From TrEMBL:
InterPro entries: SseB_N. This is SseB protein N-terminal domain-containing protein. Residues 45-114 form the SseB protein N-terminal domain. It comes from the Bacteria. It holds the Pfam family SseB.
């Protein structure tokens, strides 16, 4: 599944046509764009959780960059990564409670929090 299809699945979840568990499964199979920042994956910390940022396409990434004051013509470096790799490898490598935030500057954002069933049990936090 490509990133564009993932964007449609996220919209479906917001519209009540897909449950969260289905979205996690779709995210695992999809390629997402992950922006790079200072030699690593771009992330933000909020209320004790580090959120890795992922986007469903260049347009969504550009919206985020613009929301951060980055000029429209400026290039934001990124890599394409399967969602499963983000959840199974990148999240545990953070060393702190971490999840994935998808399309955070768009109309249909999605948060994949650090809980059992989304991230590996060893790095999940209690509900």
């Amino acid at each position: 599944m490509g990133a564009a299809e993932l964007a449609g699945r996220i919209a479906d979840m917001h519209l009540g046509r897909m449950n969260g568990r289905g979205l996690v499964a779709e995210f695992r199979r999809a390629l997402a764009l992950v922006p790079l920042c200072e030699g690593g994956l771009w992330s933000v910390d909020a209320e004790g959780v580090r959120w890795l940022l992922a986007f469903t396409g260049e347009e969504a990434l550009s919206r985020f960059a613009a929301s951060r004051g980055i000029d429209a013509g400026a290039e934001v470096p990124y890599m394409s990564v399967y969602g499963a790799r983000l959840l199974e490898v990148a999240v545990p490598a953070m060393g702190v409670p971490a999840g994935v935030a998808v399309d955070v500057a768009g109309p249909w954002p999605a948060l994949l929090p650090p809980v059992v069933g989304i991230v590996p049990e060893a790095v999940a936090v209690a509900a």
